[in-house]
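Hmm, how's this folded?
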Amino acid sequence: MEDRRKSGKKFQTSIIIDPSGNIVGEHQKTSITKWEVENGYSRGDSINVVDTKIGSIGLAICYEIHFPEISRIYALKGAKIILNPIGTGMWHESQLKQWTSIASARASENNVYVLGCSHFNDAIPLAFAYDPNGNCLVLSRDANRLITVTIDLNKLGEEQFSQRRPELYGELIKTRMNLNKTHSFLNRTSPRMCL
């Protein structure tokens, strides 16, 4: 949803509401598209899990699921579920396949459930759920109905992050991308990689 609560700024924000109707957490989108920049949206500046009665949840808004670092931070902070609300549908079949492949990978590489959906609009609607092994639990192209899925947080495997080597990953934060080059998904033109 569009969020204008901070004076002079607007954000793409997702919220988590508990069964009583209370807002228990929110996330402002940290990695925004070229269109969002051009239309005056600001970037969020934090990646925090939301603790709920069913477990810790991370919110990767729309295109943020494409950034493995965001999902990894959520997993390192204890998220058991990553929600991926999508502000649009998919614009073509190859994008749908790419998106679901990425969601499956985020689930598997972080040992979490990844659940996502778009709203009904003129694009291809989408709803999905992947288990911590990357297996598809639900994949629906009918976003105009209620879809339920049962997950078992006890099935989360052994914590796999003990084999990580963070001392080798410094290059990830030292190297800045050329922000003038964008991925084809952002500008819907030729496929240029962010280098």
